[in-house]
Amino acid sequence: VASPTRHRMNRPPENPAPLVGAVAALAGVAGMTALIHLAPGAQRVANVSLLYLLVVIATALRFGSGAAVLASVLSFLAFDWFFVDPRHTFTVRDPAEWLALLVFLLTAAVTGHLTAAARAQAEQARLRERETALLAEASWAVAAQVDRDSALREVLRRMADALPLVEAAVLAPDERGAAAALVCFPGPTPEAALAEAPVRYVLEHGQAVAWGEARAHWDKALQPLPPGRAYLPLRVEHRVLGVLLLRLPPDCVPGAAQRRVVETLANHAAVVLERDRLLGAETATRALREADRLKTALLSMVSHDFRSPLASIKASATACVQGEAAPDPAAQRELHEGIIREVDRLNGLVGNILALSRLEADAWRPQCEAVMLEEVIEAARSALPQAADAALSVRLPPGPVEVWLDPVQIGQVLHNLLDNAVKYGGPAGPVELEAAVVGGRLVVEVRDRGPGLPAGEEDRVFERFYRAPRFREGATPGVGIGLSVCRGLVEAHGGALTARDREGGGAVFRVELPAGGPP
Amino acid sequence: VTRVLVIDDEPQIRRALRAGLERNGFAVTLADDGEAGLDAAAEAPPDLVILDLAMPGLDGFAVCRQLREWSSIPVIVLSVRDDEADKIAALNQGADDYLTKPFSLDELIARMRAVLRRTAAAGEPEPPVFSAADLRIDFARRQVTLAGRELHLTPIEYDLLRHLALNAGRVLTHRQLLTRVWGPDYAEDTRTLRVHIAHLRGKVEADPTSPRFIQTEPRVGYRFRQHA
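Predict the joint structure of the above. Result:
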């Protein structure tokens, strides 16, 4: 975010070159001497000394104490030469005038010095203020960035306001411990910079190789660094999280104020890295906890929902082969049909678990394509049992409507919703499916006349392994994965799946998807 | 007697298929991997091959490809993979149909009969008339009637319907349909296909979301439903 009130610190307030100050002091004194000569009545000793004092103060204000001292001495000499009898010699006739001259010199020197000191102080204060404003604005701007890299980029941008940066980068060790550039300024940093010895040193020891003693030590002990390079640790307490790499023009040595800015901004960068690290750790913990919960739920499911169909299959199959006499054909057929039913149930279960684990691993990106809405609904209906399909009432917009989605996944979602409506809605009434495209969004509602949703738990039906209390131990098969898979798939499409009670009894499941076209 | 070669590395599947198919009047030969399967097919060419995809050594895709180099024996792929990409690859590589495991024997036999009927018809001249339920296509007159009422199809719609009907029971991939009806230059133009199929279904089907004739295989293609 560019702010119009950027405080530029690239150029520190100028302390003009000493020569300029000297010339100015000389010119000032000469000018004043001429002026006093021209102005009648100005030549009285008391007036003369005050007028020269003015020159000294002006020189001090503009050019600092060195020039002021020179101006004092020049004024003293000019005073003596031009205005103290005998004129045009440096001798003084009246001893009283000696006193006047000496007092003038002293006053001029002290005034000049004080004025220059006051000026320097004001200058310092202005600098401080500017520095504080820059840092305050920078920390606000950095804190306003939510994601790590844009916050770091902001740090570098702010740093470029304070220093004539040629190049800068924030490096951090990757999983294998090698330094990798997280962000660079202004363009990509050459790979070579990552492998530099100072980077490794800073990462290992947490000490800057930038300027001052550390830099001198480095240059003496190891090979000298190219001028303008600086490497600063990004540290929170004793943990070195990364390295800030700076490249300045070779002749640029940052002043104390600039170093302070750099160090403060480096601290900001370190805090950003730390925040990111903690966030990552928290996410990992949450994922682990979630995985643990899933594992527990899967285990309990395996013990119940897998074992019971397996038990039925084994019992039926052994009943067919055991015994001396061949079982009667009708009974045998019944057993076989039971086996087929249980196998289908197991197969459905495995499909749902696979879907769930793929969703968990975030490995299931929708493969969207343009399809006809009617074909998606067809896919949803095609695997329904015939009786259920016959009791279904479908309402679509007239004519072919093209939508943009993953036909297999959304077909699966709608199939699960229809299957659920039939299974839990029971024979109480027809199941309705209505689809429409509204403003580029596909809205599909599946409505039944079943017992509806448990009050206050409308959203819990989408939780994994959730089953409404009345179905928990019943014979209605299912383990509460279907709906959570549906919601996961719909959300992977950037859509929403919600449930609500239906007026007059029953439940409504509503799918809303962006289906307008490729983004 | 129809001779069927089953190529699958899973012994229990081979056993079950042999029992099930023999009971339905097929003569069954078994092979437990791709190479053995190709040898068996070369030695005594069967009328139909049932082929697994995931096998050690030569996989199903390779077997299908090699078989197609010298033979047009119909192939039905049986696989646990339900990825559409696999289906498309197998079909485009010359497989005649694709069935996902676990499957029911009834479904398999229905698909086998459909495939066999087509290959038997392939050598003969095109039948003058095709009919399924109350849909009737008169190829000689390019006339289509539904419950005795004539349908007005565009030439493209008629060609689509004709190709699907002549391959009744079999999935035709998008690419196959586009190549045959529009020509090889249009093989990727699925949008055109989608729109024409939608219009065709609008004329032929009472309820396109529950089609009686032209079924969708999402992402793969279309199939004219086999009517007994």
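The interface with chain B takes residues 340, 343-344, 347, 367, 369-372, 374-379, 381-382, 389, 394, 396, 399-400, 402, 407-408, 411 of chain A (CB under 8 Å).
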